[in-house]
Design brief:
The chain is built from twelve helices and 13 strands. The strands form four sheets. Strands 1-8-9-10 form a four-stranded mixed sheet, covered by helices on one side. About 1% of the residues have low confidence. Strand 4 and strand 5 form a beta hairpin. It is of the alpha+beta class.
Length: 405
């Protein structure tokens, strides 16, 4: 991210009723149900939605027995698709299930010593963590910056707030003409790398056919924009509310949905780099998910410790190998101590092996559906272990020790 004297940056978010987000929530609800019964479940669950149906596919290996159609219908209903006029109705939609078991080749790469399932002491488990390989190759990025209290880039933080507020206004009944599908977009103006004002706010929301555009604009301003965006940031802001003029047909009827198609919305809104892997529907042996969560955890603690104003961490893995093939830090020139010292402190403080990440963040729990809308990072409405800043003191001690050496 550059620090030009003046520049604009834009990020978007979507509501829980967006067709892709519906699919993310279905996949993660199934993952949560499997982990509830069998924490060692291996899950790569993909969902597809279109008018009147949801398809659940992918690979699952588990001892759990769950009602997948029932879970799908519960998610669709909770989002608000409870009327056939919306294009999909929780009580009548078709649910198709086409799941297979995880490839034994992939399982072998991860399972070299999954005797860690039980019967070993903590010391023996720790000694064997090196034998538990990553579930795939790939690179993941984590990012944090001091633009907001949650240490997220301001454009994506505000876009998520608007999207959440849009759904809240619908579910609370304040705007009863709203429908579940919607998108938000925020453009922030930066002066010398610091957010100075919100330049543009765009909201496109599905609505009932009888409501007039003037009512939509007034309602969105009062019940969505004003509660979500601080007044001091709304200086000469441009507003676009349903600029297409009409948005009645939405959700899976308006556009087919697919798990994992909103990876930039899920992360940093394009402000930081992305390794390309999606999160939803994947158990934590998949480093696409756990590695990205760990990278955010590291970057957030680096910024919270005052070691940099911005921190991006890249971590990469080889399938079947526990230790990362690379760990790289970029602070974009904002570091307060040399980057190579920060990098070494990270390696001293954090265990970035897959089993180490799973253990440190306690990831074999049913905590994932709540992440499947409104972002996986910077959340202030739910407790997520990778959002803790509990390693600040350890990082500072590691930096101090390096300075004395």
């Amino acid at each position: 991210m550059t620090t030009l004297r003046r520049h604009l940056f834009t990020s978007e978010s979507v509501t829980e009723g967006h067709p892709d987000k519906l699919c993310d929530q279905v996949s993660d609800a199934i993952l949560d149900a499997l982990l509830t019964q069998d924490p060692l479940s291996r899950v790569a669950c993909e969902s597809v939605a279109n008018t009147g149906f949801v398809l659940v596919t992918g690979e699952v290996t588990t001892k759990a027995k769950i009602d997948i159609p029932g879970i799908v219908r519960d998610v669709v209903a909770d989002i608000g698709y409870t009327n056939a006029r919306f294009g999909i109705d929780a009580s009548t939609c078709a649910v198709m299930v086409a799941l297979d078991q995880q490839s034994p080749d992939i399982a072998a790469a991860v399972d070299r010593s999954w005797e860690l399932r039980g019967g070993l002491s903590e010391a023996e488990v720790d000694a064997k963590i090196d034998e538990i390989g990553a579930g795939d190759q790939g690179m993941m990025f984590g990012f944090a910056c001091d633009e907001t209290p949650e240490l997220m880039p301001m454009p994506i933080a505000l876009a998520h707030r608007l999207a959440w507020q849009l759904s809240h206004a619908r579910k609370s009944g304040k705007l009863d003409w709203l429908r579940p599908d919607g998108k938000t977009q925020v453009t922030v103006e930066y002066e010398n790398g610091v957010p100075s004002r919100v330049d543009t706010i765009l909201i496109s929301t599905q609505h009932s056919p009888e409501v007039e555009h003037a009512t939509i604009a007034a309602g969105l301003m009062e019940h969505v924009v004003i509660p979500a965006v601080p007044e001091e940031m709304r200086s000469d802001t441009k507003y676009f509310f349903n600029p297409s003029g009409r948005f009645v047909i939405g959700g899976p009827q308006g556009d087919a949905g697919l798990t994992g198609r909103k990876i930039i919305v899920d992360t940093y809104g394009g402000y930081a780099r992305h390794g390309g892997g999606a999160f939803s529907g994947k158990d934590p042996t998949k480093v696409d998910r756990s590695g990205a969560y760990a990278a955010r955890y590291v970057a957030k603690n680096v910024v919270a410790a005052g070691l940099a104003r911005k921190c991006e961490l890249q971590v990469s893995y080889a399938i079947g190998v526990a230790r990362p093939t690379s760990v790289t830090v970029d602070t974009f020139g904002t570091h307060t101590v040399p980057e190579e010292i920060i990098e070494q402190a990270i390696l001293d403080v954090f265990d970035l092996r897959p089993a180490g990440i799973i253990r440190a963040l306690d990831l074999r729990r049913p905590i994932y559906r709540q992440t499947a809308a409104y972002g996986h990072f910077g959340r202030t409405d739910v407790e997520l272990p990778w959002e803790r800043t509990d390693k600040v003191e350890a990082l500072q001690k590691a930096i101090a020790a390096a300075a004395k050496a």
